[in-house]
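Quick start: read one record
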Amino acid sequence: MTGAQVKKLVRALADTTCSVILIPDVFTFNILHSRIEEVSGVPVVPLYDTPLSGINRLLKRAEDIVLASLILLLISPVLCCIALAVKFSSPGPIIFRQTRYGMDGKPIKVWKFRSMKVMENDKVVTQATQNDPRVTRVGNFLRRTSLDELPQFINVLTGGMSIVGPRPHAVAHNEQYRQLIEGYMLRHKVKPGITGWAQINGWRGETDTLEKMEKRVEFDLEYIREWSVWF
């Protein structure tokens, strides 16, 4: 294959959650200065890969189970109080289950305390904005404090999410941004998280511009590449 063909193929695979490795020549090795691995004795350079495999994946899962169990035990009185507040503040269910992309782009049901009068889970989902009339009084407080996300510790226990990882976006938003941001789907190579490296670095809340979402994705991919027990 020519260099142009390889580049075109790599770009196409960036819209998937595949792990991609390259068998380069010596010249390419010198240019990339990349981590070198072996597959059946053949030296390869991982292009789209994650350290979250094998023993590392087991360690992260064990960490998630232990921490999520302890946190749910500690916050159970808070969960009950919030559930009552949501129930009596407006008609509708206490928990809102929204379909989002999980690991490998597979759909999962993400749990949240309901914060809106109108629940959207369709092909078109409008992001909540400041002073959004759909948000209830209690919901406004829950969203500002991120308390609406607490039921997602149950998602962690059931294996659909992790405590730390790329935040799961609505399916409609995924379909939109995968067309606009190269490599967007690579953030689904790991389980989505209750919080993520992007949010820790200040990229949380409404993504009302493409640049904001690009920064989120940039930090998400950095987390996936650099993950360790301590990061």
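Helices lie at 3-13, 26-32, 55-89, 137-145, 152-158, 171-180, 197-200, 210-226.
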